[in-house]
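Please, structure for the following, as tokens.
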Amino acid sequence: MRFRLATWNINSVRLRLDLVERFTRAHQPDILCLQEIKCVDGLFPELPLRTLGFDHVAVAGQKGYHGVAVLSRIPFTKVQRRDICGRGHARHLSVTLDGGASQAKPLILHNVYVPAGGDLPDPSLNPKFRHKLDFLEAMEAWFAGLRGKRSNRMILVGDLNVAPLETDVWSHKQLLKVVSHTPAEVERFLRVQAAHDWVDVMRRHVPTEEKLFTWWSYRNRDWRASNRGRRLDHIWTTSALDGAATSMRVLDEARDWPRTSDHVPVIADFEINE
């Protein structure tokens, strides 16, 4: 099975529907995972997105700053929404991709939106940061409890809101006390990865010593000149799919589009044996 997968924190799908259309027509993803769609299920613009060729749509919507969606040209069967941290937030959606009768084992795609965590990196003073740490711990427990660590075929994408490596931020020293790169978050993030031997697809294609960003703040007037970015968006696979991603690209040019998100799409091409 060959397909192009993209993930993008769109920061309101209805506000930026034209950018989703622009991206889709230019880069032709077979699957597009969106986060922070900012709408309930009934208001999701499903019809115009289906006209782009996404015949299969799954939505976990919610008012406010939550909500995720999976748009696919590839049929999928099982759709699940997991309340990862028990707060009733729409932050996870998974689908089982239908590879046809010859597919030996299920291929499950997870779309996740980890809480941002607010501004103050103190869980005793900032409930949002406490929620983020709790969410990461709940993800670790979930994946640690899954059987078949060596054989499960899963892909996980989304805005995970943590930049784990020193080269995932513009300044490691200056961001050590900034939410998204604090030791408390990074430690938990790495435990989530280890809980099911997740493979960092992006770093399979870009060496760890090179800077790699997917997010640039709206506060930067000239984001490209300052390049004060962070890698908050991720693509992982289980070890059984290590090497299945044949290419990866961060579409930083999308940060220059009018009224765009502060995140940019991340694209990976996959070739998976049935």
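Helices lie at 17-27, 46-50, 127-144, 183-195, 201-205, 223-226. The radius of gyration is 17 Å.
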